[in-house]
Fold this protein.
Amino acid sequence: MTIVPSSMKRGSAELAILSVLLEEPLHGYEISKRIEEHTGGVLRFNLASLYPMLYRLEKRGWVKASWQTTPSGRRRRCYSLTAAGRKQLPPLRDEWRLFFRALDRLAGVSRA
Amino acid sequence: MNGGFSSARSIAWPVFPVRDWAQLVRERLGAMGIGAEREDEIVAELGAHLEDCVSAAVRNGRAESDAVDMALEEVPDWVALNREIAEAKKEEPMNERTRTLWLPGTTMLVSAYVLMEVVTRLVPHNAWIRPLFPMFIFVPWLLAYGVLGAMGAQWSRRVGGNARTRALAGTFPIALHMVIFLCVFIATSLQPHPRTPEWLMPSFLLAVFFKFILLPGIALAVGALPFLRDRTPASTKLPGTANA
């Protein structure tokens, strides 16, 4: 399996996190698992890469967090998308689409 | 501040089973200098994440000691993690409304006040309420308000404000006019007069409202108008890197 370089992962982290939170509120571990599952393991966030990014998104007001108790009685900090975060998704998607189209024109990535 | 690093790094690899993940995170992460309450939250959250990693690995058939090792591999460098979390958390999160409305709106309001002060020094005080308010002052003043409206709305759009917030940020200086108008009106009407003062005549009030509130409000709104629509992305830079 080809692994995407870390610089690209960093750039795509915001989009990945916001996209999975669009589905439903999740806590940190669930976010990392959901991203891993949806990308077939190509994108994977460990604790060290996930939480600083989540805190940055929280600081920008794109996600908000609240403590919740799971059915098993554990307390977990759940993240949900704010209206501002929801609004960031379409332009982020457009940026990435534009970027991949440009890359495709340049290097024929989709034909490779 | 970060004095806990050396001791945190010198802690031996945990002996299985780790029961208190939060305590392990606290020892390895050390102090972050962001306040005890926030640090407690982070420690609890990261501890819970590691606990979930172990539980999932055990459910998938891993031996518990392997599961603990896997969980600890989630953080290759605790010092770097400490630094990154501290950077991300240090600044107080600015409320979305503050960022998209109050900050641009208030800045434009202060700019409008400064502009008004300049105009006031150029024009005699009573000229503001005279029918023949000097047009050579009034028209540029309205044009300047158009620019303020545009700046407020553009600022709000740049930081993620929606159309309504942009419109409010752009037209925010009109609040200054309303407050001045109301204060002067109330103060004047409370003064004892032998006969109905000019200020309380409806036609006069209407004229002042038109020149002092309606026209500047329209100028601000017209200036803000082009910035109420969302921009279409045109950049081909690596997406997501600008704000990271």
In short: Residues 203 and 209 of chain B are 10 Å apart (CA to CA). Residues 96-122 of chain B form the longest helix (27 residues). Residues 96-227 of chain B form one domain.
